[in-house]
Design a protein that fits this description.
CATH superfamily of one domain: Metal-dependent hydrolases
Radius of gyration: 20 Å
Order of helices and strands: EHEHEHHHEHEHHEHHHEEEE
Number of helices: 11
Strand order of the largest sheet: 1-2-3-4-5-6
Number of strands: 10
CATH class of one domain: Alpha Beta
Helix content: 25-40%
Length: about 325
């Protein structure tokens, strides 16, 4: 579920969605779909009564709009201005707002695609007061920095939040290792390079924001995290599998034991690959991790006990996905 500020919400409708297994909803504090404080508080309480959980994309829309308008007025619309238009304090301010609302209601809260050290500090501080806050980051915020926006393909990295500084990357790695970050997702939004150029070549602020990342999530996290000893193998499993399943209500996922689905991934730490559009299977003409060498790739995969990947080759009979109801 994605909740938009212009929509009204009937409690019976939200409750029915949760009972049907749609246990989470996403709220934006920026874009046209953003919600104001009163709407967020109301929905927080409604979702808690219904047994659901809200996830938040946190950026200060008013400040972003002010900065972006200035740049456009001055015709400063190259890719190097993208991260400057959504500075780190915009995330931190929106995170602080959501955390204050969560504290006032006592409702558990989930911050998605965290990108800054300052936002992380706010989460850690409020947790000290007993507030239940979950935090997620993504591989792009662990491995890429805002220097890429001044490169030849700077438009490839237009996403929100934007890429940050090396110090932010390092802080997020440490937070994964310590358990202060609970999950690693992707924020996968697979716009092509062709469309990014088509719409945003003359004005970065018209570029479709988002990058592909589903296929590269686990190899990058294993290679850059486990193999480089930034995180333990146990933390790798926790943030990619066990944690998301537990937090988001996937009762039969995220563990290997009797009664759970036999979803198993075996990673071969000796295998290597240089990431590129040609070496990946994503239906898109680029990867933001182009040229990165990863070590440790899935060699075998079973889905509900059925072999899907053998020695790195897909062996499934075709689409095998099923809708999985989630109950928190």
């Amino acid at each position: 579920m994605v909740f938009q500020g212009k929509n009204g919400f009937e409690e019976k409708d939200v409750r029915e969605l949760v009972l049907r297994g749609h246990a989470t909803g996403k709220v934006y504090t920026t874009y046209n779909a953003r919600m104001n404080e009163d709407q967020i508080v109301s929905l927080m309480k409604l979702m808690e009564r219904s047994g659901g959980l809200l996830l938040y994309h946190a950026e200060n829309d008013k400040e972003i709009w002010r900065i972006t308008s200035y740049y456009e007025k001055k015709r400063m619309t190259g890719t190097k201005y993208w991260p400057l238009s959504r500075p780190g304090h915009c995330e931190a301010e929106a995170v602080d707002l959501i955390l204050e609302l969560a504290k006032s209601t006592g409702v558990p809260t989930y911050i998605v695609h965290l990108s800054t050290l300052s936002g992380l500090k706010s989460i850690m501080e409020i947790r000290e007061h007993g507030q239940k806050i979950y935090a997620e980051t993504c591989p792009q915020y662990l491995c890429l920095t805002d220097e890429l926006y001044i490169g030849e393909n700077g438009i490839d990295y237009v996403m929100a939040p934007p890429l940050r500084k090396k110090k932010d990357c390092e802080a997020l790695w440490k937070a994964i290792a310590s358990g202060d970050i609970d999950t690693v997702g992707t924020d996968h939004c697979s716009f092509s390079r062709a469309d990014k150029v088509r719409y945003g070549e003359g004005n970065v602020f018209r570029t479709p924001g988002g990058i592909p990342g589903i296929e590269t999530r686990m190899p990058i996290l294993f290679s850059e995290g486990v193999m480089k000893e930034r995180i333990s193998l146990e933390r790798f499993v926790a943030v990619t599998s066990t944690g998301p399943a537990k937090i988001l209500g996937l009762k039969k996922k995220g563990r290997i034991e009797a009664g759970a689905d036999a979803d198993i991934v075996i990673i071969d730490p000796k295998t290597e690959k240089v990431l590129s559009a040609d070496t990946l299977h994503q239906k898109v003409d680029y990867t933001p991790f182009d040229g990165m060498k990863v070590r440790g790739l899935p060699s075998h995969v079973w889905l509900r006990g059925m072999p899907m990947l053998e020695s790195g080759t897909f062996v499934g009979d075709g689409p095998s996905g099923r809708f999985v109801k989630r109950f928190l």
